[in-house]
Amino acid sequence: MNSFQLANESSPLSLTPNFILPEHKRPNLSQVTSLDSIPIIDLSYYDENNPSSLEVVHKISKACGEFGFFQIVNHGVPEQVCNNMMKAITSLFELPPEEREHLSSTDHTKNVRLVNFCLKVEGGEKVKMWSECFSHFWYPIDDIIHLLPEQIGTQYREAFTDYAKEIGSLVKRLLSLISIGLGLEEDFLLKKVGEQPRLRAQANFYPPCPDPELTMGLQEHTDFNAITVLLQSEISGLQVNKDGKWISIPCIPNAFVINLADQIEVLSNGRYKSVLHRAVTNTVHPRVSMAMFYGPNPNTSIGPIQELIDEEHPIKFRNYRFSEFVEEYYKPERTGKTVKENFKLEDK
Ligand code: OGA
Ligand code: NI
């Protein structure tokens, strides 16, 4: 049985009914605003010996509390490394359909897979997202790279090896800035999530879509790891929820979009937010993005950090092992509720 249907399989593109969302799940694009946006933070000002660096820490901390999202510029990752990564992803999605189909799998435990995500709607029906996502682990990088199947090719392998090393060090820097912002020891979060971390990469491809109002590239979600680094091509499509409104994220050359994911929200006892976001499509341009998910080891115990619980900030989540959270995330019967809701403590 072949249930895999790629979004860009037919030519000319057509919206078959299995891509059409029920009315209340559609993106409602006319309501999206670009007036408000997430902060853009220049990391070149950060130098641990310079007292004005605290300004960068402060900006990040504010962004984490208000938006759960920010963009960074002058982050030190060479432009060439990012460009090579984007080129390799673009070529990957240009592989002939037979070869892409070969990589497809609905088994989320697979090390490497191509997936066409679905949204389960009322009545148990599944609506397909207008995207293809190629996902694999990225730690330890030198071992993983050899596990990528033949058809992935050397261009991707080489570009990814360089990219993963850069993003690994960038995330370490960010985790230390975020720790300082929370008033913790600089290496606190890195120690918590950086030991034998669970790292997955997801290259997303959104073909042009005949009717972006009826479909979604990626349904609204929060990321379930700790922190995500997203690189996007110069075509916008990412939208972030702020106080119930969708705001679109502009594409800035040589910037990364950083978002906090569920584990940081729990560790920070809700001071920092893991917010809903989604990807929408457009009629003209194909769009690619690369999400690097950085999460703790499955055995790590997660719960609000002691120092961040006090009378003013009563404990909001229960303690759990990260593997428990992952299991909950992949439960087939899971519906609308976000996973972190299941770990929330009742308000007293
Ligand atoms: C993701 C994600 C957004 C994008 O991969 O989790 O939110 O713009 N991607 O591709
Ligand atoms: Ni996401």
Poorly predicted residue ranges? 1-5
Mean of all residue-level pLDDT scores: 91
Q: Give the end-to-end Cα distance, rounded to a whole number of Å.
A: 51 Å
CATH architecture: Sandwich
Fold topology:
Blueprint: E1 40-42, H1 54-66, E2 69-73, H2 79-92, H3 97-103, E3 112-115, E4 118-120, E5 126-128, E6 132-137, H4 141-144, H5 153-181, H6 188-193, E7 198-206, E8 218-221, E9 227-232, E10 238-242, E11 245-248, E12 256-260, H7 262-267, E13 277-279, E14 287-295, E15 301-302, E16 320-321, H8 322-329
Parallel strand pairs: 1-2
Antiparallel strand pairs: 2-12, 3-6, 4-5, 6-7, 7-14, 8-13, 9-12, 9-14, 10-11, 10-13, 15-16
Bound molecules: N-oxalylglycine and nickel (II) ion (NI).
Describe this structure in words.
The protein has 348 residues and is α+β, with helices and mostly antiparallel strands. It has a single domain (17-343), classed as Jelly Rolls. The chain is 25% helix and 21% strand. The protein contains eight helices and 16 strands. The protein has an eight-stranded mixed beta sheet. Strands 8-13-10-11 form a four-stranded antiparallel beta sheet, with no helix packed on it. Strand 4 (118-120) and strand 5 form a beta hairpin. Helix 1 crosses helix 5 (153-181) and helix 2 (79-92) packs across helix 5. The longest helix has 29 residues, at 153-181. It is globular, with a radius of gyration of 20 Å. Mean pLDDT is 91; it is low at 1-5. Residues 221, 223, 277, 291 line the site of nickel (II) ion.
Index terms:
binds nickel (II) ion; 4-stranded antiparallel beta sheet; disordered N terminus; globular; binds N-oxalylglycine; single chain; 348 residues; 8 helices; alpha+beta; 25% helix
